[in-house]
Task: inverse folding
């Protein structure tokens, strides 16, 4: 039961698309990731997913539109909705979703990454 | 399903200790509040509560210690643990907790405030 400093947590790793668990509450997890480039299209059958941008500008592609999320902004992708994060430059993202949500959702490929605890 | 800009949301109200719901996912709510002064000691029987500081410095008093939470830092108060937020100057806080969690927990008094939707 210690406080978490996001900047320190982001300094503790470099690899893109890795998810690091920094908090747990009510069956949910708080995760952070550095992202850059294009992810894979995927959805989560049973999880709404919140993308909160801490640094940079994230494009969240949906099948019918793109959502631009800047610092201090967030977007909640409802369960079942296909999405793909894309970032021209590195973005620091904080995620909220149910524990054990897989980063690639319904897809398993080289981008699949089991989240690790900070 | 729109993105949320926290700064805009904080600009939309002024009163301290009001909680405003800005997001809902997986049975949880994302709330924001401006706080200043001393709140009441309380706990939540069935809810872990996350305090994320967007602006300013929050003191979270626990019965055995004080936790200082600055910008970009968060602390999760486990269910059942008594706590009291205190802020010398105005602080902007983002909260994550189960839907319908009462701000004063086990206490009902003049500080009790039913969260409103943004």
Result:
């Amino acid at each position: 039961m210690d406080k978490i400093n996001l900047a320190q947590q982001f300094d503790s790793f470099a690899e893109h698309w890795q998810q690091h668990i920094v908090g747990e509450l009510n069956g949910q997890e708080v995760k952070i990731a550095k992202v850059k480039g294009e992810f894979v299209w995927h959805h989560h059958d049973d999880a709404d997913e919140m993308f909160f941008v801490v640094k940079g500008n994230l494009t969240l592609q949906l099948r019918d539109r793109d959502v631009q999320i800047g610092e201090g902004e967030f977007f909640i992708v409802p369960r079942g909705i296909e999405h793909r994060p894309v970032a021209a430059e590195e973005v620091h993202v904080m995620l909220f979703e149910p524990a054990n949500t897989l980063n690639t959702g319904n897809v398993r490929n080289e981008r699949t990454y089991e989240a690790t605890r900070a």
Remarks:
- Chain A touches chain B through 31 residues (CB under 8 Å).
